[in-house]
Amino acid sequence: MPTSQDTDGQHLSVPFDLSISYGRALQQPALQAWSGKPENIPAAQQALLKRAKLNHLAMLGEYKAAMENA
After folding, report:
1. pLDDT by residue (tens digit) across 12-49?
2. Handedness of CA 13, 17, 15, 4 (dihedral sign)
3. What pTM does this model have?
4. Furthest-apart CA pair in the chain: how many Å?
5. d(CA 59, CA 50)
6. What are phi and psi of 63, to 5 degrees?
7. How buried is residue 59: exposed, middle or buried, by Cβ count under 10 Å (0-12/13-18/19+)?
8. C-alpha 68: how far from chain center
9. Angle formed at CA 64 by CA 60 and CA 70, multiple of 5 degrees
């Protein structure tokens, strides 16, 4: 069975769009950065923006794990 690494970046020719719910995955880094402290709001906003961009790239099939540390 192929792993996600085997298919990373491959595009399939299918007659439909595949979407994935990223709700909690989108929120968790921001919530962790915020930790309920007003002074952490800018860091939380940056974490949310980064996660949203990476999730968008994943939807397009352009995500690479190395982007997490960029």
Report:
1. 677 777 666 668 888 999 999 999 999 999 999 999 99
2. positive
3. 0.67
4. 47
5. 14
6. -75, 140
7. middle
8. 9
9. 115
Sole residue written with tokens 């939380």: 44
Nearest alpha-carbon partner for 20 in 50, 58, 51: 58
Q: Given the structure tokens 């020719």, which residue do they identify?
A: 13
Note the pLDDT tens digit of each residue in 9-22: 666 677 777 666 66
Element (H, E) at 34: helix 23-34
Extract the tokens encoding 45.
């906003």
**Among 63, 6, 7, residue whose Cα is nearest residue 22:** 63
Q: How far apart are the first and last CA of the chain?
A: 30
63 within 8 A of 57, measured Cβ to Cβ:
yes
As a residue count, the chain comes to 70
